[in-house]
Amino acid sequence: MARRTIEPVLWLLFSAGGVVSALFLPALVFLFALAIPLGWVDEPGRGELLGLVGHPLTALVLLGVFVLSLLHWAQRFRYALFDGLKLKAHQRLINTVVYGLALLGSLAAVVVLWQAVSARNA
Prior knowledge:
Largest sheet: none
Order of helices and strands: HHHH
Number of helices: 4
Shape: elongated
CATH topology: 3 helical TM bundles of succinate and fumarate reductases
CATH superfamily: Fumarate reductase/succinate dehydrogenase, transmembrane subunit
Helix content: over 70%
CATH class: Mainly Alpha
CATH architecture: Up-down Bundle
Mean pLDDT: 92
Number of domains: 1
Strand content: under 5%
Low-confidence stretches: none
């Protein structure tokens, strides 16, 4: 009997992360790296930004963007190491490191967004 792997799930998350990153990250980069620093858009106050990011629905959408983007990065970087640098012999170590980093980044996003939601409700 053939052994099942989680490879199809990883490719599904890779694809979802690419789509989400392509849709949301350019707008976020434009706002926070160009429009606000150059004065094209008024800088939001702490209360306004906390009110927006602290809303549970916004926090959930941002969490999805961050987690899927990190998983997309992990899959892309994994195959860059496998195919580009020819490190396929170290597959287990590379998988552990890249997906561990994606997990740590996802947990950091959960903590930060949870604090924003809690601060908004306090």
